[in-house]
Design a protein that fits this description.
199 residues; Sulfite Oxidase, Chain A, domain 2; six-stranded mixed sheet; five-stranded mixed sheet
């Protein structure tokens, strides 16, 4: 006697998965970077939010870990057309960092060790939409995936989730980052397939 009721065949996985247009599902975690992988010592790491008025708010590694952490489980969508579903992270919601920040800015430019930048509307970093993450699937975040800390903005293409992030510059006017200056879309919504300027 089987443990499955007669006639029950389950739901094929492909039928249950909805991906953004042009994406394919992957089980692995491809590593793509714009340059060499920085190796940052934790006692040297810091994160700085700089307001449009030049006021700086700083956190050390130890101070970041003192903030309340969350464990979001999210889907990832890369502009190179792969999607990875149900990834689990641990980190600090950007809402926690912005509690003490007084700003009238509408835009943000994320900065990373190694010189990478990417632009985002500030509203896309708040209201539970973005995190500074330092663990992936219960393990310390490896350098190849952006450790010790990366930005995680899962509702946008993955290039917006800057690896090795070390700061956010708040801006009154939008300013393109690394890939945006090279022709990638300023916003990058995978559900609208905003890969390149004009999409």
């Amino acid at each position: 006697m089987g443990i499955v009721s007669p006639g029950f065949q389950g739901k094929p996985r492909s039928a249950a998965v909805t991906l953004p247009p042009g994406q394919y599902l992957t089980e692995d975690f491809p590593v793509l970077s714009a340059g060499p992988t920085p190796r940052i010592q934790l006692d040297q790491w810091e994160f700085v939010i700089t307001t449009e008025a030049g006021v700086k708010h700083r956190w050390s590694w130890a101070e970041l870990l003192e903030l309340p952490s969350e464990t979001p489980t999210v889907d990832l969508h890369c502009v190179t057309k792969w999607s990875k579903l149900g990834t689990t992270w641990r980190g600090v919601a950007l809402d926690s960092l912005f509690e003490q920040v007084d700003t009238a800015a509408d835009f943000a430019l994320a900065h990373s060790y190694g010189g990478y930048t990417t632009n985002l509307p500030l509203e896309d970093l708040l209201d539970g939409q973005a995190w500074l993450v330092y663990e992936y699937e219960g393990e310390e975040l490896g350098a190849e995936h952006g450790g010790p800390v990366r930005l995680l903005v899962p509702h946008l293409y993955l290039w917006k989730s800057a690896k090795w992030v070390n700061g956010i510059q708040l801006l009154v006017q939008d300013e393109p980052g690394f890939w945006e200056s090279a022709g990638y879309h300023d916003y990058g919504d995978p559900w609208r397939e905003q890969r390149y300027q004009g999409d």
